[in-house]
Amino acid sequence: MNENLFASFAAPSMMGLPIVVLIVMFPSVLFPTPSRLINNRLISIQQWLIQLTSKQMLAIHNQKGQTWALMLMSLILFISSTNLLGLLPHSFTPTTQLSMNLGMAIPLWAGTVITGFRYKTKASLAHFLPQGTPLPLIPMLVVIETISLLIQPMALAVRLTANITAGHLLIHLIGGATLALINISATTAFITFIILILLTILEFAVALIQAYVFTLLVSLYLHDNT
Amino acid sequence: MAGPETDAQFHFTGIKKYFNSYILTGRMNCVLATYGGIALMILYFKLRSKKTPAMKATLTWTSSVKFRCLEKLMSTHHAILNLYNKL
């Protein structure tokens, strides 16, 4: 039982070969490329969703920030599709791996910070000291703001990893509990099954929300630096 | 939001003109001064000698050529004595 609990988070391999790259690339297959002026219903819905998300997300940005539109849309599509596919039974979810999420968070955060320092050096440096800080508190606040900046990519990655991992673990545990309770008490097993259904619905929401939160935070860091 | 347009309302004189927490330049200079102070502190503690004068004198003697020759001579002497005792 203990070994099985974390087996789903191990890097998958088929006949001794790692297939994690194929799994990471798989969601892109599910998004068809529009090839006509007026496309079929599926592609039209896809285009409408992307347009809706991009309009809402890029409304706060200026021209420089809007150059990141493709990056942000790809990010939200990738994370949401990966998270949703991970809810299929016995599937591997790449976003449960901290290495994967750090690999997304650190370059994106660093990109926003470097952009800010390059184009608005004064404002980026001044950002480390909140306006109106009393004189004795200045050194302490500068140190605190620096630490909070450096913690941002870690928080981004760990938030996504922890949410998805915790959800999958809970589903695994409650599913196991339901199975174990079937022979003991059918009523309790039924109640646990209802809880499992509600949890799965919650996990669908969490999968989409976490993708949105990740992308929104990257967008906010970009907005602060452009 | 802070910016050049809100900075115009502040009029500082002396050192406060360059180091304050209200205008953009002042905040930037405070941040740079804090980083510079931290860098200086780190440099000071790194370059500071950790040895006392007595330790320094001992280490100077122990690292000298004379001491190393004497040490080698003593170890050879001990080795010959041990060999003699075994025989």
Automatic annotation (TrEMBL), chain A:
Where does this polypeptide localize?
Mitochondrion inner membrane
A single Gene Ontology MF term assigned here is: proton transmembrane transporter activity
Q: Where does the sequence pass through the membrane?
A: 6-31, 67-86, 98-117, 137-158, 164-182, 189-222
Q: Which UniProt keywords apply?
A: ATP synthesis, CF(0), Hydrogen ion transport, Ion transport, Membrane, Mitochondrion, Mitochondrion inner membrane, Transmembrane, Transmembrane helix, Transport
A GO BP entry is: proton motive force-driven ATP synthesis
Q: How does it sit in the membrane?
A: Multi-pass membrane protein
* Pfam families in the record: ATP-synt_A (PF00119)
Give GO cellular component annotations, separated by semicolons: mitochondrial inner membrane; proton-transporting ATP synthase complex
The answer to whether UniProt assigns keyword Transport to this entry is yes
Q: Which reaction does it catalyse?
A: H(+)(in) = H(+)(out)
- Record's PROSITE patterns? ATPASE_A
> Which InterPro entries does the record cross-reference, listed alphabetically?
ATP_synth_F0_asu, ATP_synth_F0_asu_AS, ATP_synth_F0_asu_bact/mt, F0_ATP_A_sf
What is the superkingdom listed in this entry's lineage? Eukaryota
Q: Where is the signal peptide, in residue numbers? A: none
Q: Which family does the record claim for this protein? A: Belongs to the ATPase A chain family.
Q: How does it assemble?
A: Component of the ATP synthase complex composed at least of ATP5F1A/subunit alpha, ATP5F1B/subunit beta, ATP5MC1/subunit c (homooctomer), MT-ATP6/subunit a, MT-ATP8/subunit 8, ATP5ME/subunit e, ATP5MF/subunit f, ATP5MG/subunit g, ATP5MK/subunit k, ATP5MJ/subunit j, ATP5F1C/subunit gamma, ATP5F1D/subunit delta, ATP5F1E/subunit epsilon, ATP5PF/subunit F6, ATP5PB/subunit b, ATP5PD/subunit d, ATP5PO/subunit OSCP.
Please report the name of this protein according to its UniProt entry.
ATP synthase subunit a
Species for this entry: Canis lupus familiaris (Dog)
TrEMBL record, chain B:
Pfam families assigned? ATP_synth_reg
Topologically, how does it sit relative to the membrane?
Single-pass membrane protein
What species was this sequence derived from? Canis lupus dingo (dingo)
Q: Which UniProt keywords apply?
A: Membrane, Mitochondrion, Transmembrane, Transmembrane helix
The entry's protein name is ATP synthase membrane subunit DAPIT
Gene Ontology cellular-component terms for this entry are: mitochondrial membrane
Q: Does the keyword Transmembrane apply?
A: yes
Q: Which gene encodes it?
A: LOC112645873
Predominant localisation class: mitochondrion
Report the locations given in the UniProt record: Mitochondrion membrane
Q: Does the record bear Transmembrane helix in its keywords?
A: yes
Transmembrane ranges? 26-45
